[in-house]
Design brief:
It contains six helices and no strands. The protein is mostly helical. The protein has two domains: 61 residues, no CATH class; 66 residues, Winged helix-like DNA-binding domain superfamily/Winged helix DNA-binding domain (Arc Repressor Mutant, subunit A, Orthogonal Bundle). 10% of the residues are buried.
Length: 139
């Protein structure tokens, strides 16, 4: 379906990791195979759709997506701002900020990891961004 051997192996591994996450139990061979097939197919379709969307976004915004080379001094200042912002927020907000900002998790996945609602993740991210902006504007 994906026409790429490496991606197919990744999907296979993802499906079995997902089975562990959801506590998959073998009930009958037919039901188990059906679940495995359905889950793998949905993941493949998601990857294909995601890849197509990324190509479209890159095509439309390729100039904006080119990373700008920040000086080492600017990178240090940015890291310092993030550290100071993390010190000013509660632990849960800090964890959500690290998951979404630094590690690139989606809001939905961060909500699963932190065992909170997606709405809570959105509010925490907004709060963290506000604190970060206030620190940028402060002398």
């Amino acid at each position: 379906m994906l026409r790429q051997h490496e991606q197919s192996l990744d999907v296979t591994q993802w499906v079995f990791m997902r089975a562990i996450e959801v506590g998959f139990e073998v009930r009958s061979p037919g039901e188990s195979l059906s679940w495995l097939y359905r889950t793998a197919t949905q993941r493949c379709l998601w990857l294909m759709r995601n890849d197509r969307s990324r190509r479209q976004i890159r095509g439309r915004h390729h100039l904006e997506l080119v990373p700008t080379a920040a000086s080492p001094e600017q990178s240090a200042v940015d890291r310092d701002l993030v550290v100071r912002a993390l010190q000013q927020v509660d632990e849960q907000t800090g964890q959500i900020a690290l998951l979404t900002w630094m590690q690139g998790f989606t809001n939905h996945r961060a909500a699963e990891i932190c065992e909170v609602s997606t709405r809570t993740v959105n509010r925490a991210r907004k709060h963290f961004e506000t604190v970060l902006e206030q620190l940028k504007e402060a002398p």
